[in-house]
Amino acid sequence: MLERRPDIREAEQTLIAANAQICVARAAYFPQISLTGSAGYESPALTNLFTGPAGIWNLAASVTQPIFEGGRLKSNVRLAEAQHEQMLLTYEQTIQGAFRDVSDGLVSYRKNREFRVQQEHLLESAQDAARLSEVRFKAGTTDYLEVLTNETNSFSAELGLAQARANELIALVQLYRALGGGWQQ
């Protein structure tokens, strides 16, 4: 699912382009011969390609041309290879970042889920305390201030549980996003 992340796709495309640039730079070592045509017929340049001294001169010039540019061509190949190495390192860093994001997302989701479970236990305890103080108030063994205090604690626990659920869902969405999302920006 990580392959759907836009940053990984972009790094892959850049790496592929850098690899293609190496091939282009190496192809410049070879002579180039252009074949042309005109309105569906062969052009005069094509028919005279190998005839007479002009054809031999043109062929010899195109063959020797890369030899005289050897230093520049070699430098271009080295440049393309260096750019490819740079893009490869960028790609590796992007992949490592993606795995780090997924790991962080998993840890965050697990911690938020554990906290939500604890908040559920706290809410149950606060609701039990509120019920018991209500029973004691009705029996006349305590005043209404204790009932209000326990109901306030129960309400605070409910708010804490709602926040814990929201945090858990946010962590789940962030984990889903780290895995590649599946939505369009």
Give a quick rundown of the structure:
This protein is mainly α and 185 residues long. It has helices at 6-27, 44-47, 52-68, 70-139, 144-178; strands at residues 37-38, 41-42.
Distance between the termini: 17 Å
CATH superfamily: Outer membrane efflux proteins (OEP)
Helical stretch tally: 5
Can you tell me the overall shape?
A: rod-shaped
Q: Let me know the largest β-sheet.
A: 2 strands, antiparallel
Mean pLDDT: 82
According to CATH, the fold-level topology is: Outer membrane efflux proteins (OEP)
Order of helices and strands: HEEHHHH
Computed structural class: mainly alpha
Radius of gyration: 37 Å
CATH architecture annotation name: Up-down Bundle
| Low-pLDDT sequence parts | 54-64
Helical content (DSSP H or I, runs of 4+): over 70%
Query: Which CATH class applies here?
Result: Mainly Alpha
Kindly give the count of domains.
1
Strands, count: 2
Beta-strand percentage range: under 5%
